[in-house]
Design brief:
This protein is an alpha/beta fold. The protein has helices at about 5-15, 40-50, 60-65, 70-85, 100-115, 130-135, 165-175, 195-200, 220-225, 240, 250-270, and strands at about 15-20, 55-60, 90-95, 120, 140-145, 160, 165, 185, 205-210, 235. The protein has one domain: Alpha-Beta Barrel (TIM Barrel), CATH 3.20.20.70. The strands form 2 sheets. An 8-stranded parallel β-barrel has the order 1-2-3-4-5-8-9-10, surrounded by 8 helices. Helix 5 (about 100-115) runs parallel beside helix 6.
């Protein structure tokens, strides 16, 4: 997907909401277990109910992988369903891959060609040659882990590197990589105030912002420090939406929660003059 198409979706829906599909069979409504593929049935219902408000979907690959070949089959059905029925919606494989060049080449082929995701999250720890195979794909996006919301993020991400915290050093270094226009960056919502420094280095890049909702991130803080003239942020919410109800009306409740978030996002976009 071209970046312009993503921006158009944001402006049309007045939303920058990404719905995370962290599908856990122990948490989905019990009545879905009667289906041959409850993971797909749950995901499909969430997608259909939230699609008026979401501009992106982010399947968490580990949740699908944990069920073996059945989980992979479900993942393939989910991405094919989105691409067939909602081709305008941006898709993110939350896989956090990253390895030596020939291995990353195969990871890129898996998610960009075989499964046809628009983007993938990638860990940059092994450096340039572990990321550039993903960047070779035209109109595909590599979302680099930069500053995360988890409690252990300070173990490495705030270590000093030539006077900069490591997460800023990673972002700065990545600007020299081949095809860096295909880069986006992960910045956790609970680290919103760091966005001011990040935007000095990458004023125009899109940021994927997890940690909103159940993890306590503030949407207004993220917008104050992270929005640019084209919005430039994708805010993910998973548990707050997909597990908002455990009854037969779970999809309806997910739509209601998504609608409330969309209204808040619309207000932020209006305040900034983006819509």
């Amino acid at each position: 997907m071209k970046t312009e198409n993503l921006i158009n979706q944001i402006k049309q829906k007045k939303s920058f909401l990404c719905v995370g599909l962290d599908v856990d069979l122990d948490k989905i409504p019990k009545h879905l277990h009667k289906h041959e593929d409850p993971i797909f049935e749950f995901s499909k219902s969430i997608i259909d109910s939230t699609s008026p408000f979401a501009i992106a979907y982010k399947p968490n690959i580990a949740f699908f992988e944990s069920y073996g070949i059945k989980g992979w089959n479900s993942l393939e059905k989910v991405i094919n369903y989105i691409n067939s029925n909602y081709p305008e919606i941006f898709t993110i494989a939350d896989a956090k891959r990253g390895d030596i060049g020939n291995t990353s080449t195969k990871y890129a082929k898996t998610f960009f060609e075989t499964l046809n995701f628009d983007s993938i999250t990638v860990a940059p720890y092994m450096g340039r040659d572990s990321v550039e195979p993903f960047l070779e794909y035209e109109n595909k996006h590599t979302i680099l882990l930069s500053l995360t919301s988890n409690s252990g993020s300070s173990d490495f991400q705030f270590q000093s590197d030539k006077g900069l915290p490591l997460y800023l050093s990673v972002i700065k270094k990545s600007q020299n990589w081949k095809n860096n226009d295909n880069l986006m960056y992960v910045v956790g919502a609970t680290k919103a105030k760091s966005l001011k420094e990040i935007r000095k280095i990458i004023p125009n890049s899109f940021l994927l912002v997890p940690g909103f909702g159940a993890q306590g991130g503030s949407l207004s803080d993220v917008c104050d420090f992270g929005l640019n003239e084209n919005c430039g942020i994708i805010v993910n919410s998973s548990r707050q939406i997909i597990y908002s109800d455990n009854s037969t009306d779970f999809a309806k409740k997910s739509a209601e929660v998504s609608s409330l978030i969309q209204k808040e996002m619309s207000n932020e976009l209006s305040k900034k003059g983006i819509i």
